[in-house]
What does this fold into?
Amino acid sequence: MRPLEEQAILVTGATDGLGKALARRLASGDATVLLHGRDDARGHRTVDEIRDATGNDRLRWYRADFAALDEVREMADRVARDEPRLDALVNNAGIGVTLPGDGARLESRDGYELRFAVNYLAGFLLTRRLVPLLVDSAPARIVNVSSAGQAPIDFDDVMLERDYDGVQAYCQSKLAQVMLTFDLAEELADARVTASCLHPATYMPTKMVTHSGTRPVSTLEEGTRATLRLVVAPELAELTGRYFEGEAESRAHPQAYDIDARRRLRELSERLVAR
It folds into this structure.
């Protein structure tokens, strides 16, 4: 693998919480860091803050609201057009059980259940559109920030229109991320692009956790360290198709290993992002 100072790494959801902490750690190692978020003013402040803290001026800002698939497409196209290489993609952007909406069912601009759209579908689309750049930059890595909170997908009611529950919505979106990871690992094995996913830490003091009234258990540093390891650790350069809880390899929900369920999710996702 290339030295960190020669790598370009895209971190989604990089203006707060785990994403911001990870971007700062990568910048401190002199990587070129592409930061994503949905607010330009906040994004530029974050870039300035990290630049001032690390002395790294190889920081670039990409804005997209992941609740709108058109914006995801546009962002992916900008990255593919403007960046000569992409050594790692970290799909970290997401929303929690109660924020936004305080547990109410919300829809994305495309009319999809919001947590499924933001936590999973946007990352699915972004990753699929950036695969050619990752392959051209190989060896490269895809890291999906998931959760130990996982729930099986009901393919008869994926958008939870009949009996909405915010916990179910969040947990099925996180399982979908794991299922995507396993698909990508198989598809890209011969292209020297690895895909892994993780539950970074339990109830870190992030905005989505504190808003829900949950008392933090783990530190932000624990989650950052576990995620950073999957992105840059030389000993994991060839590891692919694995799920981690913190720094320990673990087992995801059984549906993640169901080939038919993964096929159904993949086909559904392709239809949804094609609209």
